[in-house]
Amino acid sequence: MKLTMLGTGTSIGVPEMRCDCQVCTSADPHDKRLRTSALIETDSTTVLLDCGPDFRQQMLINRVRHIDGVFLTHEHFDHVAGIDDLRPYCKEHDLDVYAEQFVIDHLLERIPYCFGINKYPGTPSLVLNRVEPGDIVSVGDIKVEILRVFHGQLPIVGFKIGNMAYITDIKYMPREEFEKIRGVKYLFITALHIKEHPTHQNLAQAIEFVREAGAENAWFLHMSHRIGLHAEMDATLPEGMHLAYDGMKIDLL
């Protein structure tokens, strides 16, 4: 099984518009961050985690030919704005999208033309599937466990897949859910930037989260330009912890 980081940036991406800071003007490709999303692949199955506004660009860059299922963490624009661009992946079959009911309701409200009785020709053929924390969903040979996470006060979901946990936009996680990821081999977790933030973990909180979870390896994601230069910050992190970057591929052994 392999994970590809399609994007590792926060909601506005990096570089940030109208900003001339050292990160936004950096020539290092590791400092260029599309909106956070990931791809999980086996020999026979491909699953997408979130589908943000950079989805089309991410698919072209990574030459993704097939998607078997889409899992959405929550309804914020930077995680669902690419839904309409799923059209090319629905030509041979309907595409299953898995989300909580609240997220489904938002999709029905925002892009109703994709789900109406008399659908406009060319719209994506999507099947909305309701999931809840505690569910284990099988897509091909990939099993996805749904985890409860809180994005500030907003309940969202994270995912555990085999010995990997993927948790974006987190501020905190209920204890009973946290125990489900204790000791995972691979952990992908939000570290927005250095300062305290009301709805996301900062870097220090993410480091403490990884230590408490006992994760063997961890990569930080959903980062703003305020995280600092990739090369400088990555070198300061504890052993086994790294800043993720766009295009990064990890074999989940």
Fold blueprint:
Layout: E1 2-7, E2 37-41, E3 46-49, H1 55-62, E4 69-71, H2 77-80, E5 95-99, H3 101-110, E6 126-130, E7 136-139, E8 142-151, E9 154-161, E10 164-167, H4 175-178, E11 186-190, H5 203-213, E12 217-221, H6 230-234, E13 241-243, E14 249-251
Parallel strand pairs: 3-4, 4-5, 5-6, 10-11, 11-12, 12-13
Antiparallel strand pairs: 1-2, 1-14, 2-3, 7-8, 8-9, 9-10
Task: Tell me what the structure shows.
With 253 residues, the chain is of the alpha/beta class. It has six helices and 14 strands. The strands form two sheets. Strands 6-5-4-3-2-1-14 form a seven-stranded mixed β-sheet. A seven-stranded mixed β-sheet has the order 7-8-9-10-11-12-13. Strand 9 and strand 10 form a beta hairpin. It is globular. The mean pLDDT is 97.
Average pLDDT figure: 97
- What is the number of E strands? 14
Estimate what percentage of residues fall within beta strands. 25-35%
Strand arrangement within the widest β-sheet reads: 6-5-4-3-2-1-14
Q: What is the N-to-C order of secondary-structure elements (H for helix, E for strand)?
A: EEEHEHEHEEEEEHEHEHEE
How many DSSP helices?
6
- Ends apart, CA distance between termini: 7 Å
